[in-house]
Design a protein that fits this description.
Oligomer: single chain
Radius of gyration: 19 Å
Number of strands: 0
Order of helices and strands: HHHHHHH
Strand content: under 5%
Largest sheet: none
Length: 169
């Protein structure tokens, strides 16, 4: 089986996290499948809202709506879903953090999450500043299309790698 090497000092810390009473409690009972179900629901909500905006940026969906309007309507759902996915994801990881840290699919998922977040930050601090000039149904600037396409690519990768985590047991 393929594993990512972990420095000993980090492995020691992760092993201590695994020994926390809350970690053991989550892993020993029905909390793990409950948190996993909530995580899947949160990710579904997150991606649903993100994909709608990304597809709009690409000109493939909801072209009668302005990107500003879609974003304003969906952003609270996106951040709420992200918060729930983050919390439930952390609760799942603390059960076996040494396993996850050495799992190539989990590591790839985390790298893709960072890339997706970086793409979003760059988009909102550069391209987004001119969104009010795009208008309803307007053709999107090429950089907005690129950001939307990269976002879709990164998030599909996050989902794929999340699914592959179990196959590196």
């Amino acid at each position: 089986m393929i594993h990512v090497p972990i420095p000993a000092v980090i492995e020691d810390v992760l092993y201590k996290v695994e020994q926390w009473p809350v970690s053991e409690q989550i892993g020993a009972g029905k909390l793990f499948p409950t948190f996993e179900s909530l995580h899947v629901l949160a990710v579904g909500m997150l991606l649903g809202s993100l994909f709608m905006v990304d597809l709009r940026l690409l000109g493939l969906a909801a072209r009668r709506y302005s990107v500003r309007r879609m974003s304003d309507e969906l952003t609270p759902w996106t951040f709420g879903a992200f918060a729930l996915a983050l919390v439930t994801g952390l609760l799942l990881v603390i059960v076996h953090p040494t396993y996850y840290a050495s799992n190539p699919a989990f590591v790839a998922k985390m790298v893709l999450l960072v890339l997706a977040g970086t793409n979003m930050l760059v988009f909102h601090h550069t391209i987004w500043r001119s969104v009010d000039g795009w208008g309803d149904g307007a053709v999107m600037p090429i950089r907005a299309k690129l950001a939307g396409g990269l976002s879709l690519l990164f998030w599909v990768g996050v989902i794929a790698m999340g699914r592959w985590i179990a196959f590196f047991l």
